[in-house]
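Reviewer 2 asked us to include a model.

Predict the structure of this chain.
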Amino acid sequence: MKIFVIGPVAPYKGGISHSGTQMCQNLAKKHDVTAISFTRMYPKLLFKDSPYEKDAKENHHFKTVTMIDALNPFTWHDTVQFIKKEKPDRVIFQWWTTYLTACFWYIEKRIKKHTRTGVILQNVFPHMGDDE
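Predicted model (structure tokens):
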């Protein structure tokens, strides 16, 4: 099965990237997997540090295409065209923040007639700074 996963993967920092990378690695054991990741997720103004791991090694057993700029809707359109051209069996969105809702909605709305889609929801409830 040909599966595309939309979300950050290594060398991006953080738990979402780690989770996405692990999911792609595991799916790639039995399927043809391509991760569609970001060229830019957030404005530089909000994040002073680099979003990438310093010494990240990309020993992936899956393909990675970096093409989505969360701030540039033209790249969303390009992503839709890429997905339609490649004709995956499934597209899985890795969702963790409302900030990316417009981007993911735009892509999903335009590909759902061509392929089955699904969403992995992460951080549905806030967990940073909770006193539970």
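The chain has one domain: 2-121. The radius of gyration is 15 Å. We have added this to the supplementary material.
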